[in-house]
Amino acid sequence: MITARDVYKSYGATQVLNGVSVDVADGELAVILGASGSGKSTLLSVLSGLERADKGSVVCDGRELSSLTEKQLTEFRRRTVGFVFQQYYLLGHLSVESNVRLGADLVGNKNFRDEIAAVGLADKLKAKPSELSGGEQQRVCIARALAKQPRVLFLDEPTGALDEATGRSVLDYILKLKAERGFTAVMVTHNRNIAETADKVITVNSGLVTDVTQVALPKNAYEIGW
Amino acid sequence: MIIGIKDGIKLVGVIIVCFCAVFVCTFFLNFYFDAIAVSGEVSIEMRPLYDAQLATAQLVCAIAGGFLSVIAVVMLVFYIKLFIDGNAKRFGLLKAMGYSSAKISLAFWVFGLAVFAGALAGLCVGYAVMPVIYDALTVDGLDIAIGFHAWLPVALVLAPTGCFCAFACGYARFALRRNAVIMLKGGSGVTRVKKVSTNAVQFLTDMRRGVLRSKKSAVFFVAFACFCFSAMVQMGLSMRDLGSVTMGVIIFIIGVVLSVVAMIMAVTTVVNGNLRNIALMRAFGYSQKERAVAVLAGYIPFAVSGFAVGTVYQYALLKIMVSVIFADIGQTLEYSFDVPIFFVTLAAFVAAYATAMFVYVRKINAVSVRSAMLQD
Ligand SMILES: Nc1ncnc2c1ncn2[C@@H]1O[C@H](COP(=O)(O)OP(=O)(O)OP(=O)(O)O)[C@@H](O)[C@H]1O
Ligand SMILES: [Mg+2]
Predict the structure, then answer these.
(1) What is the ipTM of this complex?
(2) What is the C-alpha separation between B326 and B55, in angstroms, rounded?
(3) B7-31 pLDDT per residue, tens
């Protein structure tokens, strides 16, 4: 599904990615693990077409991202990818329902209420983000990303701002929905325990992939430590 | 210090409006009182022109002073509300720590400084151009010397500054009456009962409405900018035909400046307030056009209404002025709606609006997803 080869990316003088190569198979859950500042978020945004690599090739869902025009890249994000951000980024002035429609309307998905029900928020349709708990807000983000029926879901520390109980339940939703729908997922975390739920663990250090481990028997959200 | 001096004098809009108001009032008031002082020397032949000059001075002061100070008040409210919304977390934290709204609101006096800066600049420039204005306004055969009226700086600079400082604190006190916890979470904190719509609207429609609802003051300023442009440009141009070129030029310039400032202010706050939403829509794959429409298109009806109201307003005002004021002083002038000027103004308006939108669409397109996401 995703094949990146020798990807370089810098911001001004800061060299962030120094020739990263990763492979993520169809339907796989890949976890990117690494210390703060190691370049995980940068890698995620390059793999998902949010940003362009300076050098190297990224093929996602059969398309070479560096060869796409800005318009095609927008179209690619629209059709192919979903995002869940660490800091939620919900639209504060709109209801839960409208926030999920941000994703659903892009692909004409009429069942956005089912997406909200799937993350256990059917009774909060009209609530504003500021009236929700952190875990609930993150679940809205997941519903919003999934409502556009992405082929690949990118998650940047989806449980980073949550406590253990809430974190586990959010992770559980992610794993369950992934099992149901079979999309590919790439998740960034710095929590080693969470990596045990993955099919593949990619360890990043100073902008380089230092280890790739295929996990034989991924655990579920309640079997891992925290 | 809760609010820095810098935040207080950043209010360019208020500064410019106060500048315009005080600038105009300075020389016209000065002229008015100098002219009154020599009224004994006015001969019968000079009388009509002399009276007309006084009437002009009165009218311009009333329009500039009254109209512009209302605008300054509205702008100040707009800024303070924006400031509180933008710093909701900070104020929520202060409230959570036990500061009372009253105590926090006292720090808002700094916003009055913008009034001081604008008014002072207006006064100085007003004095500087006074000789030129006196030349333009002089009645042949009557010598009106420039006198200095010490109460002018007090009335035009110090008093407004004091009033605005007090007003800023008072309004802030009102605007800070929100739930601290919701403010901490970045919400507006004001819970309103809203009718829950059962019919499902498209996201883009909802987003467009949401942007309008969340920035109501911007709606006002867009309409106001278009109103000003339409009313004051047409009035300024018509004034030339009515034989008052100086006043026409002043109105024209103030109209253009005000509308440009109000428009830039409104659209900038709308775009900046939505940077993250725009970036998010971009990340999800919404096209450039969809992003621009979602954020800016909702304002078009208000812009058009503002323009229409402005046209009617200036027509009515000129009609009244011609029939009441000039009739009073025994001059007969004909005024009818000026169609060519209307179309010239309309064309300029459409061109300016299109340019502004184009610039902002470019700006919206340049919002990089990650940089917007990484803010704070
Ligand atoms: N827009 C930017 N401009 C300049 N430097 C940047 C920018 N974005 C990221 N960096 C730098 O790139 C490096 C990697 O950033 P990145 O966000 O990818 O780290 P990360 O691994 O996700 O860290 P964390 O776990 O803390 O989120 C950091 O040193 C950061 O300072
Ligand atoms: Mg990161």
Answers:
(1) 0.70
(2) 9
(3) 777 788 788 888 988 988 898 889 8
If you measure CA to CA, which chain A residue comes closest to B208?
A94
How does pLDDT run across A78-112, given as a tens digit for each residue? 889 998 887 777 877 788 998 898 888 888 888 88
What's the A17 CA to ligand 1 centre distance in angstroms?
A: 10
pTM: 0.68
Q: Is the CB of A46 under 6 A from ligand 1?
A: no
Q: What is the mean pLDDT of residues B256-281?
A: 82
Summarize the confidence of residues A51-73 as an average pLDDT: 90
Distance, CA of A59 to CA of A82 (rounded, Å): 16
The residue whose CA has the least distance to atom 13 of ligand 1 is A37
With CA atoms as reference, report the closest residue to A153 among A165, A141, A168, A135. A141
Dist CA B208 CA B281 (whole Å) = 13
Chain A residues whose CB is inside 8 A of the B370 CB are: 41, 45, 50-51
* Separation CA B85–CA B69 (nearest Å): 24
B96's tokens: 């959570």
Greatest mean pLDDT among A126-135, B183-192, B359-368 lies in: A126-135
Interface of A with B (CB under 8 A): 41, 45, 50-51, 71, 74-79, 81-83, 85, 87, 89, 91-94, 97-98, 101-106, 126, 128-131, 148
Domain boundaries, chain A: 2-214
Domain A2-214: CATH superfamily, name plus number? P-loop containing nucleotide triphosphate hydrolases (3.40.50.300)
Residues forming a β-bridge with A24? A2
CB B299 within 8 A of CB B222: yes
Dist. CA A16 → ligand 1 center (Å): 7
The SS3 of residue A34 is strand
